[in-house]
Structure formats: C-alpha cells, structure tokens
Amino acid sequence: MVFIRTDANSKIGMGHLMRCLTIGKALTEAGENVVFLVSDSESENALRSSGAVYFNLSVNWDDISADELDAVRSIADRESHDGKVPIFLVDSYHLNDNYLKELRKSAIVAYIDDFLDSTKEADIIINYDVLARKEKAAALYDGYHTRLLVGTVYAPLREQFFNVRKREKFYAEGDGRVCNVLLCGGGGAASFLPKIAEHILNTLPSENLKLAAVAGEYSDAFAELETLEKEHPGRISALKNVVDMKSLMEDCSIAVTAAGTVPYECCATGLPAVLYSISDDQLPDARWLKDNGIMFYAGDIRDRMDIALENISGYLKKLMESPELQSQMAKKSRKITDGKGAVRIARAMLRFRETGSFFEITGNDRAYKDNNIFRFLEDCSQDVRYYDSGRSAFSAALQSIESSAPEERSKRCLLPVYTCDTVILPFEEAGWEVFYYHVNRELEPDPEEIDELIRKTGSSLVLFHTYFGMDTLDNMSGYINALREKKISVIEDMTQSLFMTGAAVKRSDFVVGSIRKWMEIPDGGFGIGIISEEGETLEFEGGAFVSRRLDAMKEKGDYLLGLDGAVKAHFLRENTGSESDRYDDFMGAYSMSLLSSEMAEGVDAKDIASRRSENARFLDGALSVFKSVRKVRDLKDGEVPLYYPVYADDREGLQTLLREHDIYAPVLWPVYENAKKSFDDNARYIYSHLLALPCDQRYDVRTMENMVKLISYHDS
C-alpha cells in the first residue's frame, strides 16, 4: 500500500497534487493500491474528479499538529492489507522533519525535495530539477542510507507526455501560418498572466500571433483573461483546466511560462520557451536553462515587472523571427527529459522493499572515512595483506605454509563439514588431501573429535570457521593454541565474522576472509599472518571479473533507482557469471583491485557494525517465540552477523514466502559432493534446514519487523 500526503489549494496551486497524481497513476498501473491523504475540503475538491481514493484529514494544511500524525497512522494501519511495509510519498513544504521521522518508524518514506538544502528524514529523496546534480545530493546524504532519485529523468510529467512526436517544423514569418503562443504559469494569488498577455498583445500587434492563455484550477486570472479575449477578438483564447496539455503544446510554436513544472513539459515536446519566475525556488533552474541556451529567461516578474515584461516580448519577437533558433532550443530541450519520470519514481519506491542479494551501487563515490574497513583490520594487526577474495587469501595462506614447512610435513588438512565449496577448492587445487570434522547444531566443533582425526589422518592443518558473526569458537582459544604448539597450522576463516578478526588474530596462525561480502565493492579479501608473496599478482586493474561484477552491481543499482534498461534477470545472471568466470580461471592468489580499495575507503566500518548489530539483535529477540523457525544460537553482545541464521522445518516454504514479498534469504551453503560422504545427522540437518536471513546495513529494523511478520504467518 502506498499513501500519498499532499495538498492543493488557492495558496499553493495545483502543482504538488498534479505531480503526485501522475506518480499515483504509475503506482496503480504497477499493481499497487494507492490512497491520497489531504488536509481539507479544498484539496478534496481538487481530487474528487481524479478517480483517486482519498481521505480528508480535516486539518490545517500549513500548521501540522500531532493529531494529524495520529490520524495518518490510524488510516495506514486500517487500510494496509498486503503484509508489506507501507510506503508514504510526501509532497509538502509544511511537513517537518519530526513528522517524517515519526512516519519512518513504521513505513518507508519518500519525499519530494524541491530545494536539496538540508538532509531530510526520508528513505527516498526525489528532486528532478535541472540543477539537482547527483554530486550535490550525494555529498549532502553521504553517510546516510538514503536512496536518491535525482535529475530530470525523474521529472513526473503526465502520461500524455510519455510519447511525444518530434517537432519537425518551426514557425517562420511569411509562411502563412499563425504563431500560436502558449501562455501559462503563475497560478493562485500570484498570477501575472493577464498583465503578461496584455503586454504581448500591445507590443507585438502582428495578426500572425495568437495567445493560448491557460489558467489553473485556483487561478484568479481567468476572468481577466476572458475580458482580454473580448477586447482582442481572434488574438487570445482564455483556457481553464486544460486536460490535453500535450496536444496544445504540439499545436503551439512557442511558450511563455513560469519556471515551475511546465518547462519540463516544454522540454518533452521540444517547445521553445521564454521563462519568467514568480518564486525563489524557480530562480536557479530558470537561470540554468538560460545559461545553457535551452530557454530564454526574462527575469523575476515580482521584482521589476516592467523589465520582465519587456524581456518577454523581446525574446518572443526574437524567436518568432528565427526558426533556426527555435530548432536549436527544441533540440537541446528534448535532451532534458523524456517525460517518464513518474514511472521511474514508482518503480524505485516499490523496489525499495527488495531485501537481500548482492550489493548494489546506486550513488557517486563516497568521501574518505577514517573508520573504513582498512583502518579496522590494521588495528587488529599490522600484518594485513589484501586480496581479490577470501579464496585468494586461502591460497596465499597455503603458499605461505608450504614455503616454510619441512619437507616431511603432510599435505593433509581438516576442514569443517559445514562449509562452502569456495573454501574447499583452494585446498584441493593446491594438492592437499581434505578430511572433514563435524560441528553440532549450534555450529561448534568438538576438540576431541578433531584430536582423534589428527591422529588418524596425520593432518598438519586445521581450518576453523567463526560462523555468522557469532562466536562459535567460544572457549576454543586454549585448544587452538595447543594445536599450534603441536606444530599444527591453524587457519581461521572470518568471512562471516569480520568484526571478530581481532580475537582470531590472537589465537590462529592465519586469519583470512572476504571483504566484498560486507559492502558495495566488486572484489576484496584479506589475509593476516601470510609471510610469502609467491604467486601473487596485481591482476584486477581493469580485469574482466571486476568489470563484469561492477557492471552487475551498477545495473542492480539502476534497477533499484527505477531507471530504464536495468533488467533484473540480466544483472543476476551477470553477477553469477562473473563469479563462475573468476573461479573457472582460478590460478592462485590475486591482489585486491585499486578500484575496490578506493571504494572501500569511503565505507564506514563502524556504521556497518552498528546497523547490522541492531538488525540482528531485533531478530534475535523476535524469533524466540516460533516453533517451526528457530534460532541457531543466541546472539551475544558485540557479535556482528553477516546473516542471521535460523533453522526452518519447511525451509523451502519459508524461503518462497519471503521471496514473494521481495526478501531474498539464501541457503548457505549448497552441498559439496566431495564432502557429502562425511555427513553425520547434524550436517544433514544443517544443510537441509538452515536459512540465512539478510540483516545488513542497507536495511533497518522496519525491514526486520516485516520479515518477522512473514515468519509469524509461516509459523502459524
């Protein structure tokens, strides 16, 4: 369910409501239920003929009180029936940050911000001004988990502007045609239309010029325009509430309009325009359009009306005299927008609910963070080397062991039977004979079993996992140290428990892990304790694996931003394909790419840990009550999970239910056939029942609450 909070009245005109109606229609066509929430009867009257579902809150539109929030929440609770987190689209200058913050406690909030002058309490920020550069927005929201829909591709024009025929012919004096000039903008009490119309009619008396003057729903100018129509028969038509604005624009040769939403409609139709401004928020865009030769700007009509009026007639005359100039301006303006911004906004709003899967890239480069992952790892140990993946780090660790081990030492190792094939393969490819030890259902190893297997197999190396960011090696430090004293090499894989690396460094010979599983970078892993660089190469500066994976991440980002050309099936296939290509060509250890290093420097590791911990703690508390879905173990203070693991009696059914609600919980891991012969009852149970719930920093407790609601439904 999507709720749209906006207004329209004689003070603010129809602009906010019209763009929201366009977005609402795109949401409805995407299969979503949409409800408008408006302040009073004046806004209700404006909505009545639209066919939209709406509620009148009976409040003051420009004086928000706590009572309104209570009413809004009550309506949202009553009307939401689809089991998904509700979405609010807010388009009002009078709803403050506290209002948005309260809404965000139980809903996804999208906010149309026409100014971008400060951060807002919103999940999605929408600004389609020509001046709304992504860099400015990205800098403003750096460190915030806010999705930015910025740029003219998001201009929410009415559906009639989606497919506009290209303007081929432009007005030229003497060709026998009338120059139809569209005059519009400046609705409500600030309307200057009659004065502009009268000035044009008096200063450009040519019979070849005819004005189509359009007044809005709340404009007080219509009566004056009708008077002008009578005084200048055949030279001006007074129009009100024009429904088919696109056709009118296509029939006109030039527009004279206020610098609000209409200029974007002019761009979509390739209509050359002369702009004037009637409010402060219109000034920057009007000047930018002028400076870039896209439209003429006559000035702020509020300050010096006489100058603005003279400029309007002067620029209009200049355009009428030059079809070449009209053509140039039309060509430039068509590049500004294709009119389909509302569809993109609707897509992005609905896709905000999607949870899980690999990381996307949706914004610009982030500024350097003192708390980045490199600083964190180097605080754990000064002996850190960076690789393209955890798999490369494993290979480097094995090279290090082999280069320093006595010749008589065996190449036999013990790995946990619950592990990933990408962990096993480096050992097999390096010629190690692999044996498996077991873990219990809390994912803890048994030291006695490991001792017995070392005795039986003659293994000289043991690999341990610290699973899911939980200290599954609790109380094992003494035992691990004892193994090392017996000259048994110990590798600890911290891929799922990156933020416990400091503890691992103190007890193991080698600590390895993936970085890219934790953040939006295409490659990245680390190794600690590795003394040999034999076989390492700096490969991925422009390497095929990084390039393909980066493209998939960007394409997923475009998909989540509602942009055209981003197809879900394609970027999923590309991501999977990049992984397959990388491992098919695996030849040892490779260094982390410079690109990923630079990207990772802009990610705050403390923020990752904080948000993941908050999400996981919520799940840990909420999942205690279910019967068919159970926690693997209790979460302890300071633990930071990669995923939150649960056992589900009907794992496939739960996974399907979550997927139907856009939550993607993976099975970790698929069974590796070479290890299957070593399964015991616990291994079979783990592999058939464990499901990994996403809890990463892209999401917050609202997402976790929705996931728990779905699990509750499944459990019942």
What would the keywords be for this entry?
41% helix, 7-stranded mixed β-sheet, 716 residues, 7-stranded parallel β-sheet
Describe this entry's structure for a reader.
The protein is 41% helix and 16% strand. It is built from 27 helices and 25 strands. Helix 20 (544-560) runs antiparallel to helix 21 (568-584) and helix 23 runs parallel beside helix 27 (701-715). The chain starts with a strand and ends with a helix. The model is unreliable at 534-542 (pLDDT under 50).
Structural category is alpha/beta
Given the structure, what is the number of helices?
A: 27
- Care to count the β-strands? 25
Q: Catalogue the unreliable spans.
A: 534-542
Termini Cα gap: 24 Å
The proportion of residues in beta strands is 15-25%
What overall form do the CA principal axes indicate?
elongated
**Main beta-sheet annotation:** 7 strands, parallel
- Oligomeric state as shown: single chain
* Rg of Cα set: 32 Å
- What's the arrangement of strands in the largest beta sheet? 3-2-1-4-5-6-7
Question: Helical content, roughly?
Answer: 40-55%
What's the overall average pLDDT, rounded?
92
